[in-house]
Amino acid sequence: MNDQDYMSRSEVAALLAMMAAYHRRRPGEADVLAWQHQLRGLTLGECQAAVAAHSATSNEITPADIRERVRRARERSAARAPKPPPGPADRSRFSAAARRGMAEMYQRTGWTRSPEQAAALAVVCPVADCRAEAGVICWPNHRTEVRQVTTRVHPSRIEAGREALSSKENPA
């Protein structure tokens, strides 16, 4: 354990002085040492907030009461914290779910894709700054190649899909 895990003696003394104002206690040097040890890992601000909140409902307070209030406050804070953006594995999983959902919707409504779009979606997009997975439409707004409006895929992907389809039909 390092010095960062403990509030300083002056911080603990300030906390005990705050508690004395609420509860009319007179802390001594032994109290400062005991409370410093019991409240290790907590900040003065966290402890002061816990004392203020606890004093509204009770005339007695222990280090355990403070620790519990700080723990709950940290949990609430962590629950409100923004979640990190999805990573590559999550994006892949989300894309697969989107493909399944779209396939089901096409099946239910009786829609069919154009043959060239179906062939293009069977391959990964060859455009370097797109690289959309098989079954996923191409990303719009690329500097190197504009996707077609009707198929929503890049022309080079349509060509790659045609080549892949013809190689399956005519194996060498």
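Next protein, fold it too.
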Amino acid sequence: MTWQQHSEDTPMPRHRRSRLAPLGSGEKLNRVRWWINLVFIIAALAGMVLWFAPGSRQVATYLLIGAVVLKFIEATLRILKL
């Protein structure tokens, strides 16, 4: 039997069952993670632009550090499934 075949006689492995949760179960968390990712991308891009602009390295450094902190928060939410 290949990994694509599945019959009613063979139970689905536990690690795959968790992905079949009802649609509304983690929707709020996914929306929060999506917004955190969006802010991270915008902050990272702005930090990169400021990094190469003359005279604004300190602001870019703080902005990039803040973006990394946001990414750590998002990754923690994803891993812990809070």
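About the second fold: The mean pLDDT is 83.
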